[in-house]
Write a structure and sequence with these properties.
CATH class of the largest domain: Alpha Beta
Distance between the termini: 56 Å
Oligomer: single chain
Number of helices: 19
Number of domains: 2
Strand content: 5-15%
CATH superfamily of the largest domain: P-loop containing nucleotide triphosphate hydrolases
Length: about 450
């Protein structure tokens, strides 16, 4: 079955394009982000040639989709045996393909499109398994993307972090476009898609070798679009006709400092994609000091906390249902039952780090505790003896329990995903659910005692 992948950055109109393509007969489910969520922790499943490990991965992939905030209608539950039997090899990509094929068949389609835009990170794996999959590179002005993220319930909130991620993602997409060529990668500008949807879609249909239909222009009327709007404010415009004037909103929505930050970090890509600068000339950039970056990061975390607090409780709960699969990788939290882990997740903050990012600086005092869901971190204490912290392990548990901040630096060695538990959040947990708080504290202390005993030996 033909597979198509939309690549780029979020907040660029990917859901709009998804429902348009669904109107053209492609199976286009709301993504469960199977690859981006499970690839980083794939090693924790062990050798997939062993049946229990393989079946556990199949189970987790199926559950990830079944818990998706927007259901893959009409499928409510996957047949695990059928998914496993569809796989031509024992790999995560194979399971993903089996899930997509099953969804397409259930909807009477012969091709599917995945809008999990992080697929650009797995092009080699996708090309190795699928038969010449095609890619749609969807891009949007970084400054409008930044403005959109500042209002969204997910993602980074400070222009520095939004622009840094946007630029890195575009560079990856452009590199793949150059490597694979025009037969495999088709570029679509959000601005052109909204200004001239009919023309852009006809061109795209020619690339995909599917017929253009007027139904593609009425995607906002579909059940999928209406359902998405009810699930989260992220997609509040999805059931509306195409907003042809939804570009360059940053001119009134962002202040000059924010625009300058975006253009400094992403200016080279803006230039390459044909966007005019507002605060500087082509080739110009600003270097930010470590102190400035530290301030940007602190502000980013504060803004994310505010956004989480304002999130619709039902939307937040749907997202925690999926995240709970990831906490299974934190080995000592497995002893907490499913419902309690869901409650616990409402008190932690999800954070993402790139290679080279400073998680904790040597000068910074921290009594927060981290749970490493994926990636590798490196702790450098005063003794200069380095310690690697990998997926499934905690970080900062001693300082968290004692309240005495350590002074070790922690650097991200591989792209990492962490859950942060602050002492303030734990105090709130103690007030709202003392039984669960005691249980979590007991497990942390038990883990710490085992680790310290091993260090002493």
């Amino acid at each position: 079955m033909q597979g198509v992948f939309i690549i780029g950055e979020q907040r660029s109109g990917s859901n709009l394009l998804r429902i348009m393509l669904a109107g053209g007969g492609l199976a286009a489910p709301h993504p469960a982000h199977v690859l981006s969520r499970l690839y980083p922790i794939l090693q924790s499943y062990g050798d997939l040639s062993r049946e229990p490990n393989w079946l556990q991965l199949v189970e987790d992939c199926c559950q990830l989709v079944e818990r998706n905030p927007i259901p893959w209608s009409p499928l409510e539950e996957f047949d695990r045996s059928d998914i496993a039997n569809r796989c031509r090899e024992r790999s995560l990509v194979a399971i993903f393909g089996a899930l997509m094929d099953t969804y397409a068949e259930a909807n009477g389609a012969t091709a599917w499109v995945c809008k999990s835009m992080g697929a650009v990170n797995f092009v080699d794996e996708l090309d190795a398994y699928f038969d010449n999959p095609k890619y749609i590179y969807l891009y949007r002005d970084a400054r409008d993307v930044t403005l959109s993220f500042t209002k969204a319930v997910v993602g980074e909130k400070h222009p520095y972090h939004i622009a840094r991620r946007w630029a890195a993602r575009q560079r990856s997409c452009i590199a793949e476009r150059e490597r694979l060529g025009a037969d495999r990668v088709h570029s679509v500008s959000y601005e052109e898609l909204t200004a001239n949807p009919s023309w852009v879609l006809k061109d795209l249909c020619e690339f995909l070798e599917i017929p253009f239909t007027d139904e593609m222009l009425r995607g906002h009327e579909s059940k999928d679009a209406v359902s998405a709007v009810k699930k989260s404010q992220l997609w509040e415009n999805l059931d509306q006709p195409v907003l042809k004037t939804n570009s360059r909103k940053f001119l009134s929505g962002l202040d000059r400092e924010s625009i300058l930050i975006v253009e400094s970090l992403a200016g080279d890509v803006l230039d390459q994609l044909g966007y005019d600068r507002v605060c500087g000339s082509e080739g110009e950039s600003v270097i930010f000091s470590e102190e400035q970056v530290r301030c940007f990061t602190q502000e980013n975390e504060a803004l994310k906390a505010e956004q989480r607090a304002a999130m619709d409780p039902e939307d937040a709960d749907r997202r925690r249902q999926q995240l709970m699969l990831l906490t299974d990788r934190v080995y000592f939290l497995k002893d907490i039952d499913r419902e309690d882990r869901l409650r616990f997740l409402s008190f932690v903050e999800e954070e993402h780090y790139q290679e080279g990012d400073v998680v904790i600086s040597g000068e910074e005092s921290s009594t927060d505790m981290f749970f490493v869901i994926s990636g590798v971190l490196e702790m450098i204490p005063d003794s200069q003896r380095k310690r690697l912290i990998k997926a499934g392990e905690p970080l900062g548990e001693f300082s968290f329990i004692t309240g005495q901040a350590g002074n070790a630096a922690v650097i991200c060695q591989e792209r990492a995903r962490l859950f942060r538990l602050t002492r303030d959040a734990f105090a709130e947990l103690e007030t709202n659910n003392p039984r669960l708080a005691v249980r979590v504290l007991h497990l942390i202390a038990e883990h710490l005692s085992i680790r310290l005993a091993g260090s002493t030996r």
